[in-house]
Write a structure and sequence with these properties.
The complex is a heterodimer of chains A (572) and B (286). Chain A is built from 17 helices and 21 strands. Chain A has 572 residues and is α/β, with parallel strands linked by helices. In chain A, the strands form three sheets. In chain A, strands 6-5-4-1-3-2-14-7 form an eight-stranded mixed β-sheet, sandwiched between helices. In chain A, strands 9-8-10-11-13-12-19 form a seven-stranded mixed β-sheet, sandwiched between helices. A five-stranded mixed β-sheet of chain A has the order 16-18-17-20-21, sandwiched between helices. Chain A is globular and about 85 Å long. Chain B is an alpha/beta fold and 286 residues long. Chain B has nine helices and ten strands. In chain B, strands 2-1-3-4-8-7-10-9 form an eight-stranded mixed β-sheet, with helices on both faces. Chain B has a two-stranded antiparallel sheet with strand order 5-6. Chain B is globular. The chains are: A alpha/beta (572), B alpha/beta (286).
C-alpha cells in the first residue's frame, strides 16, 4: 500500500508549531518523500490555536486531507479541536502532566514534553523539540539528518539554543523508544530512491524566486498578510541579486514607486493583499494610461475590509478584473502550485514588458503559506525576454515620441537619460509626444492603441489544463490554488468509476478561444469549484464561453478545499 | 553651452494670463541653463493641478502622474537611476493635501530630489476651492463663509521632519527664485522649495502686490544661520506682516541613494542584464 500520512501539529501561537512542522516536512523531503504543509493560523502573536497540517506521500501532492494519522497537541484546545478528525488507527501525542483528559483512549500517548524540556533543554519552550523527536520515534523513523535541520532552523539563535533543541529532540525520541516502541501504525519506511534535488519551498518563496529569475530590480511594498514573506525574502537576497527593496509608507506609494522605476527602465514588482490592492487601484489605472509595465502579486484573504487576516479565499478575481478607472488591458495569472509559479512569474514579467501593461498574479493565503516538496528538475523556467525598447536611435535629436502609433499598439520605450532624446509620460490623455490633449480624434486613436494590445496578448495565453477522462460525465472547473484538492477529487471520482475531467486555469485573463478536449454536450454536470461565495470565475467562464455553470461548489469559511469536501458536494 | 533655447517645448501653455506659474517656469528654465544641464539628463515628475503642467512647457524627460503622487514616482526613478537630475513639481493641494503622507516620508528618506511646490493657497484647476494652505477666513467655493481651518505650515513641517533643505521662494522674484532652485538642485538630498505663487483668478487676497509688501530676503539677514534647527523652526513661523524668503534650513546628511549599494557604480537601469542564476538560490531549499 502506498503511503499517505497526515500529521497535524496544533498548539498556541508561540509554542513552536511551525518549527515542528518545518522539521518534519524537511526530514521526509530529504528522505525522498513528497510533502505538503498547510498552516492554519490565527491573527495573533501568542496564544489562540494554530495548526500545521503535513501530508506525506511518495508522489507529488498539492493538497491537505481531513483525517489525521499523527496528531501532536501542545495544549488542551488543540486536543478539543482536532481529535474528532483523528483516525481510529491514528495516534495522539500530548503532555499528560499538563493536560488532564476525561477519557484516555488506547491510541493517546502521553509524553512528559515539558518535564523533559525543562530537564534536558533547561527551558519549557523546548517542548516542541521534544515533540518532534517523539513524533519521529513513533513513526519508527531515525534521527539521521534531523540534527542538521535543527541547526539550520536555529542558526541565528546561537549555539546554546541549537544544542538545547537537539538534545530535546533526542530526549523525546529516546522516551518513545523506551516506552512505546512498535505501537504506532503510521510507520514510515525509508525509501530506497532518495532524490538529492528535492526542495522544500513555500508559495511565497517560489513567487519571490520567480521574480528574481525574471530579472526583478526594484520592489516596493507595504507589509500585509499573506504577502509579507515575499518582501522579506526579496530583501534578504537583495544584495546578492542586485535588487532594491523599499518599504513604502503605504500601498499608494508602493505602486507609484514601482511605476516610476519601471518608467526609468527596470523590471519592478509589488505584493499585497486585497485591502492593500484597493489603495493601489488608482496606480493600476496610471500604469494603464502611461503604458508602464508593472507586476502586482495579490495574496488573497477573506474580505470585505479586514476580514480574516490570516486565512484563505479566492475572492478578488472580479475585483482585479475590473480594478482601475477607465478601460485598459491587463493580464491575470493564478498559479496552481509553487512549482508552476516560477514559470508564470517570468511569463507575467515578459508579457507586462512586451505590451507595457500591468500583470497581476492572484495567489492566496493557502498558496503563500504552504510548503511544497518540489523536484527541482521539474521546474520550468521561462527565458527572460526584455522587449519593447528602442534599440537603434536613428532618430533626429529630440524627435522621440513616447506614444507613437504602432500596429499592435506597442510604442517603443527609451530609458530616460538616453542622449538627446526625452520621454514624456502623461496620465492625461495625450498626444504621441506625450503632451496633454483634449482632441477627440487623438483620444479615439489612443484608446484603440491601448486596447489593441489585447488581441495580440491572447496569442501568448496557454489553453487551460485538461486532465482525466476523455468522455467525462462530470467536469470540474477551477482556477489557481484549488488545483491540488481538485486533482485529488478527480482521481478519486475516476477510481470510483465516475468518468470525470478537470478543466483548470492558471492563465485566467485574457482568456483565449477555448479548445476543449471533451464534448460539452455529452457532459452531464459541470461544477465550478471556487474558494469564494459567488463563483466569480464561473461568471467569467459563462461570459467568455456562453456555457452556463449552474453547479458551483463554493467554500468561503476561510479554509482551503480538500478532495473529500469536493466529492461530498458532488454527492457521488 | 546650454541656453534657454534648448529647453523650448512645442506644447502650448494653458495657464491664465498673469498666473504666478509663469515666473516659476522662467526660474526653473534659468536654473537648468545656469547649471548647464542638458535636457535629456533632467527628469521632472509632476502630479495634477495647474503647477503639474509645468514640465510640458519645458523640453526634458517628464512623468506627469497622478494627483499627490509625485514623490513616490520620483523616488522610484531616482532609486534606479541616480545619474538623472530628478525634480518634482506640484501645487499645494497636490503636495500638502493629497500627497501629505508621501511628503513626510520623502523627507525621512532624503532622496536627492528637488521638490518645487507652487503654493498659491487655492485650488486653481478645479476652479477655486480652499487648499490646506489657504489663509484663515479666505472665502472660496468650498468655504463660502470663510476658511475656518488654520493653514498648514509646510516649512515648519519640513524642518520638524528633518528635511535636509527647506526654502521659500516668490514667483514675483524670478532671479531670487532661480538661485534658490539652483541651490535646491545642487543640494545632495531632498530639498523643498515652497514657492509663493499668486493666483490672479481665484485668490484675490494673496496677490503679487500683497506679497511684494511683505516678503524679505533671508540673505540680507547676516545674523540668520540656516543650519540652526531651532532658529529655522522659529523662522518658519513668520507669516503675516513679514514673510521671509530664501533658505530656511539646510543640513548635510546621507541621501537615500547613498544606502543603495546596488546602484553605486552603475545605475541599475544601465546594468547589463545578466540572467540571474537562481539555481544557487533553489539549492538552499534542499
Amino acid at each position: 500500500m502506498s503511503i499517505d500520512i497526515s500529521i497535524v501539529i496544533s498548539g498556541q501561537a508561540g509554542q513552536g508549531v511551525q518549527s515542528i512542522a518545518f522539521t518534519l516536512a524537511k526530514v521526509f523531503t530529504r528522505a525522498g518523500y513528497f510533502t505538503f504543509t498547510y498552516h492554519d493560523i490565527m491573527s495573533r502573536i501568542r496564544g489562540g490555536n494554530n495548526s500545521a497540517i503535513i501530508r506525506i506521500k511518495e508522489s507529488p501532492i498539492d493538497s491537505i486531507k481531513t483525517d489525521i494519522d499523527l496528531l501532536i497537541c501542545l495544549d488542551k484546545e488543540a486536543i478539543i479541536k482536532n481529535t474528532d478528525k483523528l483516525k481510529d488507527t491514528g495516534i495522539l501525542i500530548y503532555d499528560g502532566d499538563k493536560i488532564k483528559l476525561d477519557e484516555i483512549k488506547p491510541n493517546y500517548f502521553s509524553i512528559p514534553l515539558e518535564k523533559i524540556a525543562l530537564e534536558i533543554g533547561k527551558n519549557k519552550l523546548m517542548s516542541n523539540s521534544v515533540a518532534t523527536g517523539s513524533g519521529l520515534a513513533l513513526m519508527n523513523w531515525n534521527l539521521d539528518g534531523v540534527i542538521e535541520i535543527i541547526t539550520q532552523i536555529f542558526k541565528h539563535k546561537g549555539e546554546d539554543i541549537i544544542n538545547a533543541n537537539i538534545n530535546s529532540v533526542k530526549a523525546g525520541y529516546d522516551y518513545v523508544k523506551k516506552n512505546f516502541t512498535g505501537k504506532c501504525p503510521c510507520e514510515i519506511f525509508p525509501l530506497t530512491t532518495v532524490k538529492k534535488n528535492r526542495l522544500l519551498i513555500s508559495g511565497s518563496e517560489s513567487i519571490a524566486i520567480g521574480a528574481v529569475a525574471s530579472g526583478l530590480k526594484f520592489y516596493s511594498g507595504y507589509p500585509m498578510s499573506p504577502s509579507t514573506a515575499i518582501m522579506e525574502f526579496l530583501t534578504a537576497h537583495s544584495k546578492e541579486y542586485n535588487i532594491v527593496v523599499e518599504q513604502a509608507e503605504d500601498e499608494i506609494s508602493a505602486v507609484n514607486m514601482i511605476i516610476g522605476a519601471s518608467y526609468a527602465g527596470v523590471r519592478v514588482m509589488t505584493a499585497t493583499s486585497g485591502g492593500g490592492f484597493c489603495l493601489m487601484v488608482e496606480g493600476l489605472s496610471l500604469a494603464g494610461m502611461v503604458e508602464t509595465p508593472i507586476v502586482i502579486v495579490i495574496g488573497q484573504r477573506p474580505g470585505p475590509a479586514t476580514g480574516f487576516p490570516t486565512r484563505t479565499e479566492q475572492g478578488e478575481l472580479k475585483f482585479v478584473l475590473n480594478a482601475g478607472h477607465g478601460e485598459f488591458p491587463r493580464i491575470i495569472f493564478a498559479p496552481r502550485t509553487a512549482k508552476e509559479s516560477i514559470y508564470l512569474m517570468t511569463k507575467a514579467f515578459n508579457l507586462a514588458e512586451k505590451y507595457q501593461i500591468p500583470a497581476i498574479i492572484l495567489v492566496d493565503q493557502y498558496f503563500n503559506d504552504s510548503y511544497w516538496t518540489v523536484d527541482s528538475s521539474d521546474i520550468n523556467k521561462e527565458e527572460i525576454n526584455r522587449e519593447g525598447f528602442l534599440k537603434e536611435t536613428n532618430l533626429e535629436n529630440y524627435k522621440y515620441k513616447r506614444y507613437s502609433f504602432a500596429e499592435n499598439g506597442v510604442s517603443p520605450r527609451i530609458i530616460p537619460g538616453t542622449q538627446n532624446q526625452v520621454s514624456y509620460a502623461d496620465s492625461d490623455e495625450h498626444t504621441e509626444e506625450g503632451h496633454i490633449t483634449e482632441n477627440a480624434e487623438v483620444r479615439v486613436k489612443m484608446v484603440e492603441k491601448r486596447l489593441d494590445k489585447l488581441k495580440d496578448i491572447i496569442n501568448h495565453i496557454n489553453q487551460p489544463l485538461y486532465i482525466g477522462n476523455n468522455l467525462p460525465e462530470i467536469v470540474l472547473i477551477g482556477w489557481g490554488s484549488t488545483f491540488g484538492a481538485m486533482k485529488e477529487a478527480l482521481d478519486l471520482l475516476n477510481e470510483k468509476g465516475v468518468p470525470t475531467g478537470l478543466l483548470h486555469f492558471s492563465e485566467v485573463y485574457p482568456l483565449p478561444e477555448l479548445k476543449l478536449d471533451f464534448d460539452v454536450k455529452t457532459v452531464k454536470k459541470i461544477y465550478c469549484v471556487e474558494n469564494n461565495a459567488t463563483g466569480q470565475f464561473a461568471d467569467l467562464f459563462e461570459l467568455h464561453t456562453g456555457i452556463k455553470i449552474k453547479n458551483r461548489i463554493l467554500k468561503y469559511d476561510g479554509r482551503p478545499f480538500t478532495a473529500k469536501y469536493i466529492i461530498d458536494k458532488v454527492g457521488l | 553651452m546650454i541656453t534657454k533655447e534648448d529647453y523650448i517645448s512645442n506644447d502650448e501653455i494653458a495657464w491664465c494670463p498673469g498666473c504666478g506659474d509663469f515666473g516659476i517656469l522662467n526660474a526653473v528654465k534659468q536654473a537648468l541653463v545656469e547649471l548647464n544641464l542638458e535636457p535629456y539628463k533632467v527628469l521632472i515628475v509632476s502630479g495634477i493641478g495647474q503647477a503639474a503642467k509645468l514640465p510640458h512647457y519645458l523640453k526634458c524627460n517628464t512623468f506627469n502622474g497622478l494627483h499627490g503622487r509625485t514623490l513616490p514616482v520620483a523616488t522610484g526613478i531616482k532609486t534606479v537611476n541616480n545619474k538623472l537630475t530628478v525634480i518634482a513639481v506640484g501645487g499645494d493641494g497636490d503636495g500638502y493635501a493629497e500627497g501629505g503622507n508621501h511628503f513626510i516620508h520623502a523627507m525621512r528618506r532624503n532622496p536627492d530630489i528637488a521638490y518645487l511646490v507652487h503654493n498659491n493657497q487655492i485650488y486653481g484647476l478645479t476652479k477655486g476651492q480652499a487648499s490646506p494652505t489657504s489663509d484663515i477666513n479666505l472665502k472660496t467655493g468650498t468655504t463660502p463663509f470663510g476658511n475656518f481651518n488654520i493653514p498648514e505650515n509646510p516649512l515648519a513641517l519640513a524642518v520638524a521632519a528633518n528635511c535636509s533643505f527647506v526654502a521659500r521662494g516668490f514667483s514675483g522674484d524670478v532671479q531670487h527664485l532661480a538661485k534658490l532652485i539652483k541651490e535646491a538642485i545642487s543640494h545632495k538630498g531632498f530639498s523643498l522649495v515652497d514657492i509663493l505663487q499668486p493666483c490672479p483668478t481665484y485668490n484675490k487676497l494673496n496677490t503679487f502686490q500683497w506679497y511684494r509688501e511683505r516678503v524679505y530676503k533671508l540673505d540680507d539677514d547676516k545674523d540668520y544661520n540656516f543650519s540652526d534647527k531651532i532658529a529655522a523652526f522659529k523662522k518658519a513661523q513668520e507669516w503675516g506682516e513679514k514673510i521671509p524668503i530664501g533658505i530656511i534650513y539646510k543640513v548635510e546628511r546621507p541621501t537615500f541613494e547613498d544606502n543603495i549599494l546596488q546602484n553605486k557604480d552603475v545605475p541599475l537601469v544601465h546594468q547589463p542584464l545578466e540572467i540571474p542564476d537562481v539555481q544557487k538560490l533553489l539549492e538552499r531549499f534542499i
